[in-house]
């Protein structure tokens, strides 16, 4: 098969060692330099006032502005679209959960081109993410979080039924090593959950992340039956589209004869058995 794309769709770091080094960030000065006092609870205002000056250090074509790789979550060279752009990348914001946000995790881990946050900068980013989470959970603006949609409840129930024993029995962690055209594995691009698909090469981490609300849609989807009931099923259609090169994703083998699809089918079957046996945990997503 011919290779459609040789670069990862969604990696946060350049994969090619010959890529130009990002520009050196300006000195941050004192520990609290550059972070003004919060100005209300409007997430867009919090971002433009407190967060945009921080992430501006990630701008530049060698980093996260423009098109191509690494992931261009800051959009065009102009800062005017930074807010709209970054909020469209759930792997960067962690779906507005700080514990899952790669904009924090990448820097906290160290080694990301010398970038670091002061405590005040990190606090500003966390405050913005939390404000986004509150506002987006209250669509009717009544001051109370809205009840989750039924599909979320179905996923939460499924998450409570997922067990590490079944995950290991089905060898789901092997998905991290599934190869696409060009030789890259799933974990090459999705180790950090880019595009809401998490195949971290550490098996325990991959299992934990795939139980969260952010990543459970990577392998599963919700089917609405004729009687209105909902059933969690493997996301075969989406995975097959990716295997066919949708959105320029590198092609990969798929279908009932593919060993990785067989692993997913087995894990789904084992989880269904756990559910039918009444052996599930609470119907909730784990706390990251």
Write a structural description.
By secondary structure, the protein is mainly alpha-helical. The protein has 2 domains: 1-146, no CATH class; 150-276, no CATH class. It has helices at 43-55, 82-86, 90-93, 102-108, 119-136, 150-161, 164-169, 186-190, 203-210, 236-243, 259-276, and strands at residues 220-224, 230-234. A two-stranded antiparallel sheet has the order 1-2. Mean pLDDT is 81; it is low at 1-39.
Distance between the termini: 39 Å
Integer count of domains: 2
The percentage of residues in β strands lies in under 5%
Q: What is the alpha-carbon Rg in Å?
A: 20 Å
Give a concise summary.
This protein is 36% helix and 3% strand. By secondary structure, the protein is mostly helical. The protein has a two-stranded antiparallel sheet.
List the helices and strands and how they pair.
Layout: H1 43-55, H2 82-86, H3 90-93, H4 102-108, H5 119-136, H6 150-161, H7 164-169, H8 186-190, H9 203-210, E1 220-224, E2 230-234, H10 236-243, H11 259-276
Antiparallel strand pairs: 1-2
Helix pairs in contact: 1-5
Features:
single chain, 288 residues, mainly alpha, two-stranded antiparallel sheet, 11 helices, 36% helix, disordered N terminus
